[in-house]
Design goal:
Cellulose_Degrad_GH3; Rossmann fold; single chain; 330 residues; 6-stranded mixed sheet; hydrolase; alpha/beta; two-stranded antiparallel sheet; elongated; 10 helices; beta-glucosidase activity; Glyco_hydro_3_C_sf; 8 strands
Length: 330
Amino acid sequence: GFTISDWEGIDRITSPPHSNYTYSVQESVLAGLDMIMVPYLYPEFINILTDLVNKKVIPMRRINDAVKRILRVKFEMGLFENPYADNSFVNKLGCKEHRELAREAVRKSLVLLKNGKQQSPPVLPLEEKLPKILVAGTHADNLGYQCGGWTIEWQGDSGNNYTEGTTILRAINATVDPSTQVVFSERPDYNFVKDNNFSIGIVVVGEVPYAETKGDNTNLTLPWPAPDIINNVCKATKCVVVLVSGRPLVIEPYVEAMDALVAAWLPGSEGQGVADALFGDSPFTGKLSRTWFRRIDQVPMNLGDQNYDPLFPFGFGLQTAPPNESLLIN
């Protein structure tokens, strides 16, 4: 094989980055990097590397070694005989079989964190024949938000115009009985919810897409306007909150007001998997793969810590019974 740097990676050898690029090129190549990822300033890189070789600072054998490693891999992959992708599989992209598998992955990855308030019966699964359902939230009808970062664009995107799939709102509409009225309001106020006599409110909120350091966050609070939406809906009617995020967030201030809470993570294009579990066509079985903290000052928090006091512990996850069974499994 061969070694390759990350995007502008060698620039970070110095502080500030790129402050002594000749040194960065010299040290990285001599250290054994065979291919350098230089997205923009490649003429500068080429000129500096050529000059270092001509001055014998970098020996030609190091260049030959790097080239040999790169070419060997390309030959082994058959890129010189067949340099282009195999288009015979193009019809598999987005095919029904793959979407069904993705939908199954969504169902199995959901984690049910709360299901009913104290002394109250479980809320989930919901009946498909409820009279009137409110669907609210910034993430209820947004494929870009469902997919997260490194999808469509580097930092992800917002909206439904860039890829095919099923939003959670569309999935709910496709699941409920034809007699059920589904009302969508992205940011309803308290009076609207209270005055409309909804059977249940389903609030879908979370983070906007991010990738790499753009997602660094020192507070991990639930982004606005999610807190307002949760409070407006959950204080006016029975509610289920579906949280779309790439990680645990600080949600303890809002959990008490919720009747049910589902961590949906980033379900991607197949939002139907969320509706499958909400309405009992598939059971909730997922468990937390990491501890869910109460406050940001607890981070990092891991199972086994001396003062382990999480909102939800590692491995937590309520289960619901498979279809046609009424037992709630703790």
